[in-house]
Predict the structure.
Amino acid sequence: MNNDEYKMIYNDYEQKRSEIQMRNKIYLEEFIEDLSNAGLKEKTINRHFCNIYFYINTYLLREEPLEMISGTESFYVNDFFGYFFIRKCMWSTPSSIRSNVASIKKFYKSMFERGYIEKSNYIELTDTIKYNMESWIEDCESYNNPDLPNPFALF
């Protein structure tokens, strides 16, 4: 592949990413509205916003620009909490995993209630969390403790 072909692929990626981010902006604004209407405090709303912004505008767009709905799929939820978040985010702790899980569940519940995702998408998300949360927490604790074996080491 020559340099011009790489530029074209990159430009296509950037265009798609930009389009998805514009849609995500609307989802985030509506999510904030829902949290505010639920009576949550500004600090709590900001925490949920930051967690979701990172998930849909950083994680889901990092390699291949993925739509917000992809974030409900077991593969991406598991990859995010079970690998990416633990290894790539210096602030990963069992507590931050729990906080992000709470934000993601609230966000996708809002998206379901607004008709952006199907009930089956929301159930897939919550089931993935239910069946894997303990493992994510244990892996995070092990990864952050140099006295414990690294759960991501090959040997």
